[in-house]
Design goal:
mainly alpha
Length: 53
């Protein structure tokens, strides 16, 4: 999860499916479900918040 948060905070965010596999998730949907369960937002929402902060 920490690796995904760091990647989503970067300027060039990789495609979600690629990010999911790089972070050890079986699919993008698994990453999204886990991310939302832990942080309360989707990876896309998190990335937008980080860019606007």
């Amino acid at each position: 999860m920490a690796r995904a948060r760091r990647a989503l905070s970067a300027r060039n965010v990789p495609p979600l499916a690629e990010l999911a596999l790089d972070c050890g998730f079986s699919s993008a949907s698994h990453l999204v479900r886990s991310f939302r369960a832990h942080l309360g937002v989707t990876p896309t929402q998190f990335s937008i918040f980080q860019r606007n902060a």
